[in-house]
Amino acid sequence: MAMNKHFRVAGSLAERLEENGVRVPAVLRRAGLSPDLFASGRVLLTTQELFAFWHAIGEVSEDPAIALKLGTERQAQRFHPSGIAALASETFGAAMKHLSRYKQLTCPEEIIEDVAGGEWSIRFRWTEAPDVEPLVLVEYCFAWLQTLSRHGTGTKLSPKRLEMLQPRKHVRELERHFGCEIVSNASRNAMIFLEEDAATPFLTRNAELLDLLAPQLEEQLRQSRQESDAGGFVNLVRDAIQQRLTGQRPAMEDVARALHVSTRTLQRRLQESGSSYQRVLDEARHELARYYLGNSVLELNEAAYLLGYEDANSFVRAFRGWEGVPPGHWRESQRARLAN
Fold first, then answer.
1. End-to-end C-alpha distance for the chain, whole angstroms
2. Pairing relation of β-strands 161-163 and 181-183?
3. What secondary structure does DSSP assign to 170-227, as a single string?
4. What is the C-alpha separation between 168 and 184, in angstroms, rounded?
5. Which tens digit of pLDDT belongs to each residue from 189-210?
6. Cβ(298)–Cβ(331) below 8 Å
7. What is the SS3 assignment for 87?
8. Which of 78, 79, 258, 262 might form a disulfide with 83, Cβ 3.0–4.6 angstroms?
9. pTM for this prediction
10. φ, ψ of residue 93 in degrees (nearest 5)
11. What residue spans in the chain does CATH classification 3.90.1520 cover?
12. Would you say residue 229 has pLDDT above 50?
């Protein structure tokens, strides 16, 4: 079940629209949305508003391939946090599991995967869709997925075919972009890969998520520990955990492997320092939670996802235990303090 009834639209999408010659005020006017929508820096839309927004993009833009341009990104630094976390996955298939869990936590949308006859199909479903999803939105999702797969694998991985409910006039441009057959008037909107493509390794699996999300973060964390007397090994373990808090709870075995010690040695050395793996994990999450809530525009659900919690409620309970107040209240008090 989705923990949120809204979609967060990144401000960078408005920048991309302008870069591609699409006037954002015209899009907002056509969609019946507030002209100040992107002024707040926090854009939340219902499914109906999201569909209106994407319908308007297709109507205002004179470029039939606008969705392909918006969904193609060459700089990982400009990826959404969910995409950055997905890049840290071991394989393409694991990345899709990350994204699916992100959707479940943060918005009324699902990623549906099916494996049959040697094929792996991926489709997006908007659970509160008022009508058929906009053509432009479907193409954008597929283009973004291709961007992610090619960034991660370091190859020009292409689907076997794209199935689309509605016919397109720019089929040849779609075929060139995706490098595959386009099947129109299909029974669904789906991206079909070979089943074996799911096992394709991601070369970015060791990418440091924190460096991409916030280049200044590691230095801030280091400075905050200068007075720490917990010992160097505890800090090493905390660093390793934080680098692996990529949308899932890092296993002790993975952290031990990263530090080139056995799991038993990891436990023993932490115990000698008066700590434990669970305690260091909690400290790592607490430290990152404070950073995410105090220095970024991440929604609470997105922070919960990145910190490896199964749902937003678990994150709220943990944060209340650390700070004595829910994360939303803590964030507001921090903003109020900085404003004075």
1. 39
2. parallel
3. -HHHHHHHHTSEEE-S-SS-EEEEEGGGGGPBPGGGG--HHHHH-TTHHHHHHHHTTT
4. 7
5. 999 999 999 999 998 886 556 5
6. no
7. helix
8. 79
9. 0.74
10. -65, -40
11. 7-203
12. no
CATH 1.10.10.60 domain range(s) in the chain? 208-339
CATH 3.90.1520 fits 7-203, yes or no: yes
Burial of residue 248 (CB within 10 Å: 0-12, 13-18, 19+) is buried
pLDDT of residue 233: 87
CA distance 265 to 325: 36
What is the rounded distance in angstroms from the CA atom of residue 37 to the CA atom of residue 43?
Answer: 7
Q: Are 120 and 198 spatial neighbours (Cβ–Cβ below 8 Å)?
A: yes
Instruction: Return the CA Rg of the chain.
Output: 22
By the 8 A CB rule, do 65 and 138 touch? no
Q: What is the mean pLDDT of the chain?
A: 87
Task: Compare 51 and 208 and report the one with higher pLDDT.
Answer: 51
Mean pLDDT lowest among 2-11, 28-37, 126-135, 212-221: 212-221
Position 57 scores a pLDDT of 97
Calculate ∠ Cα 275-224-286, nearest 5°: 55
DSSP strand pairing (190-194 vs 7-9): unpaired
Question: Is domain 208-339 classified as CATH 3.30.450.20?
Answer: no
**Per residue in 4-29, pLDDT tens?**
788 988 888 998 999 999 999 999 99
- Tokens found for residue 183: 């099947």
- Whether residue 235 is predicted with pLDDT greater than 60 in this model: the reply is yes
Higher pLDDT, 87 or 209: 87
Sheet holding 119-126, edge to edge: 109-116, 119-126, 190-194, 161-163, 181-183
Partner residues linked to 326 by β-bridges: none
